[in-house]
Amino acid sequence: QVQLVESGGGLVQAGGSLGLSCAASRSIFSINAMGWYRQAPGKQRELVAVITSGGSTNYADSVKGRFTISRDNSKNTVSLQMNSLKSEDTAVYYCNARTIRGVVTHDYWGQGTQVTVSS
Length: 119
Fold this sequence. Notes:
- This protein is mainly β.
- The chain is built from no helices and eleven strands.
- The strands form two sheets. Strands 2, 4, 5, 6, 9, 10 and 11 form a seven-stranded mixed β-sheet that branches. It has a four-stranded antiparallel β-sheet with strand order 1-3-8-7, with no helix packed on it.
- The radius of gyration is 14 Å and the shape is globular.
């Protein structure tokens, strides 16, 4: 089990920057992948960025070059730096932790944090 708590959301103007942070309740060293997802009103939740335990990253095409995901195993945190924000980035952002043990996958979610980009 792991509890996740996001912070850092808020209101920002288009073109601005915002940083999100996710704190885990236990060591994330053994967590296979941690990521950020978002869900805009009327839309499905979508992957924004993910980072594996080995440090590999993957980004949605819509945020490549603008967003950067990082993890700090010593602090049990994962962060998302968002630059050049656009109105279409407006959504609730969720932190995710995924553990894979053999054929069993567990997903853990934070409560979400609102990001609003004004045009």
